[in-house]
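Example 4.3 (complexes with small molecules)
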Amino acid sequence: MPRLVVVSNRLADPRKTAAGGLAVALRQALEASGGLWFGWSGRITENGTPGEGEVTRQQAGAVQLVTVDLSREDHNSYYERYSNGVLWPVFHYRLDLADFDANGIAGYRRVNQMFAHKLKALLRPDDLIWVHDYHLIPLAAELRAMGCTQRMGFFLHIPLPPPLMLAALPEHDWLVRSLFAYDLVGLQSETDVTHLTRYAAAELGAEAAGAHGWRAFGKTLQVRAFPIGIDVDEFQALAKGRDAQDMYEQLRRDYARRRLLVGVERLDYSKGLPQRLKTFRTLLQNYPENQGSATLIQIASPSRESVDAYAALRTELESLSGAINSEYGELDWMPLRYIHRNVARKRLPGMYRAAAVALVTPLRDGMNLVAKEYVASQDPQDPGVLVLSRFAGAAEQMAEALLVNPYDTARTAEAIQRALQMPLAERQQRHQALLARIRTHDVHWWRESFLNALQQIQTSEDKA
Ligand code: ADQ
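Answer. The structure with adenosine-5'-diphosphate-glucose bound is encoded below.
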C-alpha cells in the first residue's frame, strides 16, 4: 500500500482514546502505511504574517504528525469568517445565517495555498492523499497548480446542499470547479451525490463519464457516497469499561422510577435543539402520563462560542429549559437536565445505554454519529429506541429508527410517545436490524471502500 497522507483542519493523536471520530477511523491505515497527517496546529500567532506559519513535526508511533500555526488574521478569515461563517451555514441550508459580506474568501484561499506549499515539500511521488472537509476544498487545486500529480481524494463530512442553494455562494463556480482537481470526491449520502452532480451538470456543463464519473473542462472526477460509520467494536469495548459502567449504574439508580431520554451534540444551530426542547414540552403537554416520569438529559457541548449565531442559540436554550422546568418541574422531579458541557467519551456509552430513547433530531446533518453510537451501546435483550431526523444523513441507512421531521413538533412528540411505549419484541427487531447495518458499514468499511476506490482510479494525466 502506498503511503497515506491525510489532510484535515485539526489533528488528533491517533493513539489516544479521547481523540475519537476521525482519529480512530484513520489510525489503522495511517499506521500500516507509516502515514503522515497534516493540518492546523490549533495555535494562533497574534502578530504572525498572513499566509505564513511555523511547521511542527511530531512522531506518534508509526505516524508522522505535521502541523502549521495560523496567524490571527488567517484564523479569523479562513476559519471563522469563511469556513464557519459562510460554508457551514450554506452547506447546512441556512442561507439566512451566512455572512456573505464578511470577506473571508481571500484568507480561505491564502491558507489553502500555504498548506499546499508546506505539504508539497513533504510529499513522495506515489503518496495517496486524502483531504477532509469544507475547510480544505481547494487544496488539491492548489497542489495541482504546483505540479503535484499524486492521486487525491476528498471527503466532505457535512451535507452538500441542492444546486440552487449552493449557487447562493458568491464563489460557487470557483469552489466546485476546484473539486475537479481531485480524482475522487466522497459524500455522506446519495442525496448529497445527486445534489453535486446536478449542480455540476447544470452550472459547469459536466457530462456523465462511466460509473460515478463526471467530466468537465478536460478533467474527470468520480463522485460517490461513502456513509461514514463508527468503530462498533471499539465503542462496545468502551461500553464495558469501568467509566461507562459507573455512568450506567448511577443513572439507573437515580432514574429507577423514571424513563430517561437523551440527546448529545455540540451546541450548533444545525442540530435542532430549540425544536427538540419544544417537542419535549409538547410530549409532556399532550401525553400527561409522562409528567413526573420522562426526563430528558440534553448534553450540548460548547462550540464556536465567538460566533453570534451560537451565542444567541445558547441564550434561547437556557431560557427554554428554564421555562420547561418551571412549568412542569416538581419538588422531586425536574423534566429537563440541560448541560452545556462535554461528557468524557469513555462515559458516553453508559449514558446511551441507560436511556430508553435517544433524540437525534438535527435540522440537517452530514451523517450524525451519535445515532450509531446509541445503537451500538444498547443491550440487545432490552434495547432503547432511536428517534432520528429524516434530515440526518444517517436516515438513509437507518430506516428502522423512528424517522421524524423535527420541524413538526406535534408529530415528533407522537413518535417519542410511541418509542416510550414500544413493545419489547419490536424494539429488539428494530435494534437488531440497525446494529447489523452499522456493523457492516462501520468506519473500517468506510475507510477501506474510500481508499480502494481512490487507488483503483487510473491516475489521470489531465489533473496537473
Ligand atoms: P459533528 O457535527 O461533530 O461531525 P457527529 O457526527 O454527531 O457530529 O459526531 C460527533 C462526535 O462527537 C460523536 O462521536 C459524539 O459522541 C461526540 N460528541 C458530540 N457531542 C458531544 C458531547 N457533548 N460530549 C462528548 N462527546 C460528544 C461532523 C458532521 C456530522 C458527521 C461527522 C463525521 O457534522 O454530520 O457525522 O462530522 O463525518
